[in-house]
Fold this protein.
Amino acid sequence: MELVTPSIGLVFWTTIAFFILIFVLGKFAWKPIMQALAEREQSIEDALSSAEKAKEELTRLNNESEQLLKVARAERDTILKEAKQLRDNLVADAKGIAQTEANKMIAKAKVEIDNQKIAALAEVKSQVANLSIEIAEKVLRNQLADKAKQEALVADLLKEVKLS
C-alpha cells in the first residue's frame, strides 16, 4: 500500500524539486522560450502580411493584365477592321480597273470589227466592180464581134445622146 499512497517526505521533496525546476526554467529558459515564441509569432505575422501584399500585388497585376488585354483586343479589332477595309478598297479598285480595261478592250474590238467590216465591204465592192467590168467586157466583145451589131449599137447610143 505504500506504493499507492506516497509519504509526506516524498511529496515535500517533489514539491521543492518542482519549484526549483520552475525557478530555474523561469530564470534561464522562460525568456528564451518566450522570445522564440514572440519571434515565431512575428515571423508568422510577417509571412501573413507579405502574403497579403503578394495577394494585393497579384490582384493589381491581374487588373493591369486585363486592361492590357482589353487594349490589345481593341487594337487587334482596329487592325482587323482597317485590314478588311483596305482589302475591300483594293478589291473595289481592282474591279474598277478590270472593268475599265474590259470596256477599253470591248471598244477596241468594236472599232476593229467595224474596220474589218468596212474593209470587207470595200473588198466585196471591188470584186463586184471587177466582175461587172469583166462581164460587161465579155458581153461587149460578143456584141462587138459582129460588124452589124457594132453599127446598131453606135446608132442606138447616138439616139440616146440626142434625146438627153
Summary: The longest helix spans residues 8-144. Residues 8-118 form one domain. Residues 24 and 30 are 9 Å apart (CA to CA). The mean pLDDT is 88.
